[in-house]
Amino acid sequence: xxxxxxxxxxxxxxxxxxxxxxxxxxxxxxxxxxxxxxxxxxxxxxxxxxxxxxxxxxxxxxxxxxxxxxxxxxxxxxxxxxxxxxxxxxxxxxxxxxxxxxxxxxxxxxxxxxxxxxxxxxxxxxxxxxxxxxxxxxxxxxxxxxxxxxxxxxxxxxxxxxxxxxxxxxxxxxxxxxxxxxxxxxxxxxxxxxxxxxxxxxxxxxxxxxxxxxxxxxxxxxxxxxxxxxxxxxxxxxxxxxxxxxxxxxxxxxxxxxxxxxxxxxxxxxxxxxxxxxxxxxxxxxxxxxxxxxxxxxxxxxxxxxxxxxxxxxxxxxxxxxxxxxxxxxxxxxxxxxxxxxxxxxxxxxxxxxxxxxxxxxxxxxxxxxxxxxxxxxxxxxxxxxxxxxxxxxxx
Length: 396
Hints:
Elements lengths: L6 H18 L19 H14 L17 H13 L8 H14 L2 H12 L5 E4 L15 E5 L2 E8 L10 E7 L10 E7 L6 E6 L8 E12 L3 E2 L5 H9 L5 H24 L5 H24 L8 H24 L20 H8 L10 H12 L9
Parallel strand pairs: 1-4
Antiparallel strand pairs: 2-3, 3-7, 4-5, 5-8, 6-7
């Protein structure tokens, strides 16, 4: 597709830039640049308030239509907002799972009652969501999950364990993929349920300590948790179709936001290389240039796929590109700093022994970039089977 911005987009950009500049220069100045992958534990209370501020300003749910969201917006205007948000170094979104994953899924597969119940609350920034997909023995191989949901009158009773659940401590709701037909194998017999997290004694959340010392991921244990039958999305047994539709949302506009953040990180690494003299190393200099060029390619690919409805391989290609790129950036950041990269804080009395600086967190957190959200191996299988038409891999 030809992707370009017009006069209306420029006006929209000016409005977005002015609103962000005013809000981030006032009450929310302290959370500018706070949060996001690797730092989700920072400033959570203030970032929840920021979600509500975004809702009041009409900036959540762009493009949903005024029946469910705050305002209408074209695709190019959604891109404009994403770009300006990232450039303003606005806080990492604690509501992104609800806005960018759940909401498009409900719009595509939910019934009218579900849309009217859940979408306005997300658009107001009032309800936060987490994703109940991965399990200890069903990560990238999601079809092997063991969590079950048993019909109990007007409800389902959900039992099982989910893992690597981002923002589960903060979330009000969780969309859960569970097996409703125990006699069915793999992706058959799965259902997509919306489960309230405030069920003491039935839902327990346990933070997982990471290499970086933080705990933004969690284990979630369901012990007969209640999910209303009216909160079953797409019909019983249609969970795999809905779940795959949801995963396809992790591309396009949201990846453009991610790439602007990547560009800022790369800029800081380049500045440090110049300032410290590491850029004089021809090998490192070539690696920095390659990172810049690959980031440009990722942007062009993301813009291309915005108009590629039905492109089965687009999400997998995007994941392969950015996962490896970001991991290499973390390695480069440490190489630029040299031996100092392995040294902890100088004043141990003033800081926690395992507290890391931003670049050390980047290096450690990016080790997981090629695993979470679907490992590189799984993405290559998807491309091989669904795009290239190669024989399917035998699975037990």
